[in-house]
Amino acid sequence: MLTGSGEPRDVIATAMAKVRRRQIPFLFLLYIVAYLDRINVGFAALQMNQALGFSARTYSIGAGIFFVSYALLEVPSNVMLERVGARRWIARIMISWGIVSSAMMFVRGPISFYTLRFLLGAAEAGFFPGIIFYLTRWFPARERARTMATFMTAILVAGIVGSPVSGALLSLSGGGLAGWQWLFLVEGVPSIVLGLVVLRTLLERPQDAGWLGERERAALAWCLEEDVRRTGVEHGTVAAAMRSGRVWSIAAVYFTIPVALYGIGFFLPQMIKTASRGSDFQVGLLGAIPYAAAAITMVLTGRHSDRTGERRQHIVCAALVCAAGLIAAARVTGAAASVAALSVAMAGLASMMGPFWALATARTSGAGGAAAIALINSVGNAGGFAGPYLLGAVNDATHSFAAGLVIIAAVVTVGGSLILAIRE
């Protein structure tokens, strides 16, 4: 059977398989490192907060202030990526954030903590929306929920791998450094190294891929062009993207996801520590379980969404599962029950990601598309400040995470419901 490009469908299928094998594992690795550098402060807090005298509120402000600079610089960063190319811009992002992340070892009080977290957000701004925009140049719309979900399982693998590794690094000492300082130093270096690798190896478009045959490049290019012809581009310029009601509506929905993701992520080690009374390393092992559960459900949901072509109901159902898990986590006691409830919450939350970004990128192209994706991520990641701050403030006031988890459950439910008002 032929496609509109005149090529057999198996040519496109072969091309997509090659692209997936070549691109996703490398981008996956980059995002693992990015997410680990972003949230390793959660494990560092097990020692750092006591060593430096940080209250839960001080810590939550520092954890969340990352997202202030991150959100402010998302759109200009992604517009710059579209202009100068993904290879150079993503390399710049990774090298600069690796340097700042390692410099977190020099934190001595609240001001230096806030400053370095703010600079880390500025350095990393544009990485995630830049990768999402980059993927739209390689994967047709019908492949995106699966692709986005597979790529974004890096968040969860970072938790699976990073939790025990971070727990182990906390046990290091020597050279005049405490365990939390070694944690920041060691986990910042891979970003710098991989940034240099990006600069040498990342390809901009399928037309640059010598590992694709000529017919495969042509067929893939036709599929990507057909997406634009079929769905239309509602925001072809940066100005149009900034004025688009659809973009702002999607951004409002996305705000609710990071509220839960980073509210849970930054405080997960402390919640498990409270429930289990285990060592730092044991907390690391237990902390990997919710991320493992989420990784499996995330990929399965993305595949089902692509197979059915449906996005909104997948998002709503996943949001409700997340909310149920959070409410359960607020009510149960003990390590096993707490980890189980948090695993359900993380599985539901992660399952929103693939269908969400497939819907969000359905009408994007060019500079306007880059700006739209960045704007959605920018507004959404303001929730990355709200979630940790909320949990920290509630914990300070009540000496419990329970009320904060229930509030976050309500926020996620509202976000999942709002998606029903947005056309696919």
Largest sheet: none
CATH class: Mainly Alpha
Q: Roughly what is the average pLDDT, rounded to an integer? A: 85
Instruction: Choose one word for the global shape.
Output: globular
Helix content: over 70%
Terminal CA distance: 28 Å
Please give the radius of gyration in angstroms.
Answer: 21 Å
Return the structural class: mainly alpha
Q: Pick out the low-confidence regions.
A: 1-5
Instruction: Specify the CATH homologous superfamily.
Output: MFS general substrate transporter like domains
Q: What's the number of domains?
A: 1
Secondary-structure element string: HHHHHHHHHHHHHHHHHH
CATH architecture: Up-down Bundle
Total strands: 0
Query: At the third CATH level, what is the topology name?
Result: Growth Hormone, Chain: A
Q: What's the tally of helices?
A: 18
Task: Please report which band the strand proportion falls in: under 5%, 5-15%, 15-25%, 25-35%, 35-45% or over 45%.
Answer: under 5%
